[in-house]
Design brief:
Number of helices: 9
Order of helices and strands: HHHEEHEHEEEHEEEEHEHEEH
Largest sheet: 7 strands, mixed
CATH architecture of the largest domain: 3-Layer(aba) Sandwich
Strand content: 15-25%
Number of strands: 13
Radius of gyration: 25 Å
Shape: elongated
CATH class of the largest domain: Alpha Beta
Structural class: alpha/beta
Distance between the termini: 57 Å
Number of domains: 3
């Protein structure tokens, strides 16, 4: 039987375009990946990769070989998982990046429940809004809100978000209650990710440019500033649920508040996604399938 050593490493290098990135995907050393690919090329008698100090690219022979091998690797991975699923315990560490109130108050508890179902699994959740490098940071998937850039990543929708405008009773008493989005132009507004707020007017989106005394990319800080009477906030409805129940904030412009962006699970090509990540993603998608803002 022909020796298949090095094929998995070669496919990983081809897809990540680098030996270091492939090593992190596969959980081994860069030298191991390089050695395995070199031995594969020696056995084949052909150069599969063009190496330079800055990048790694496929040769003509490497491109043709990759097209054949990638399906073999997928099939092998699926076969291994199919057998493992019958007698496995999830283990290792699931690393998740999340940002915002939705990730903290809703996604984190869901992952806690997932962890209880798999006692051998460790979960490491990093609440950071920065753009993550999935390979270098070792992140399995991220929870993100809003419009996604075309980055080549895989995205699965978790939930649609309904927007809500709110203010504190003291602010409304002092500044009056606006009854139309246009009146926000003369109000003090608390700006989060952008200062263009989109409302719904007779079924059509209407954008209003706002400004105010407080700006931050942290949703908790927006809520607290709103409770203190610094201005009007406009974010997904669930951001204010506790404050409204306690009487600290009051909804305004309810008939104009539109449907906001969505929350997403974002991750790299599923070909090398660990089983623990695949199962966690499927669990979260199912968990939020009937979630209402």
């Amino acid at each position: 039987m022909e020796n298949f050593d090095g094929i998995v490493e070669f496919v990983a290098v081809a897809e990540s375009q680098g030996f270091s990135a492939a090593a992190k995907q596969l959980g081994c050393s860069t030298s191991h990946v390089s050695r395995q690919v070199s031995r594969l090329e020696e056995r084949l008698g052909s150069s599969l990769l063009a190496r330079s100090t800055r990048q790694v690219s496929l040769t003509q022979a490497g491109t043709a070989y990759y097209q054949r091998c990638k399906e073999l690797v997928i099939g092998l991975q699926q076969a291994n998982e199919q057998v493992s699923q019958q007698q496995f315990q999830l283990n290792g560490t699931l690393r998740v990046s999340g940002a915002g109130i939705f990730a903290e108050q809703y996604v984190a508890p869901a992952l806690m429940d997932f962890g209880l179902r798999h006692p051998g699994l460790k979960i490491d959740m990093d609440f950071n809004s920065r753009m993550v490098n999935f390979v270098e940071d070792g992140i399995d998937f991220a929870i993100r809100y809003g419009r996604l850039e075309d980055s080549g990543l895989v995205a699965r929708k978790l939930a649609d978000r309904q927007m809500m405008a709110v203010a504190s009773p003291s602010y409304l008493k002092e500044n009056g209650i606006p009854n139309h989005p246009d009146q926000l132009k003369t109000q003090s507004c608390l700006v989060a990710n952008n200062d263009e707020w989109v409302f719904d007017l007779n079924g059509e989106p209407v954008s209003v440019k706002v400004s105010g005394r407080w700006r931050t990319n942290n949703a908790h800080a927006i809520v607290k500033a709103c409770e203190q009477g610094l201005g009007i906030a406009y974010m997904p409805k669930s951001s204010f649920s506790g404050s409204i129940q306690e009487g600290l904030l009051e909804p305004i412009l309810e008939s104009f508040c539109g449907r906001g962006a969505s929350s997403w699970i974002v991750y790299q090509n599923r070909r090398f996604l660990p089983m623990r990540a695949r199962m966690a993603i499927d669990y979260l998608v199912d968990y939020f399938s009937d979630w209402v803002e």
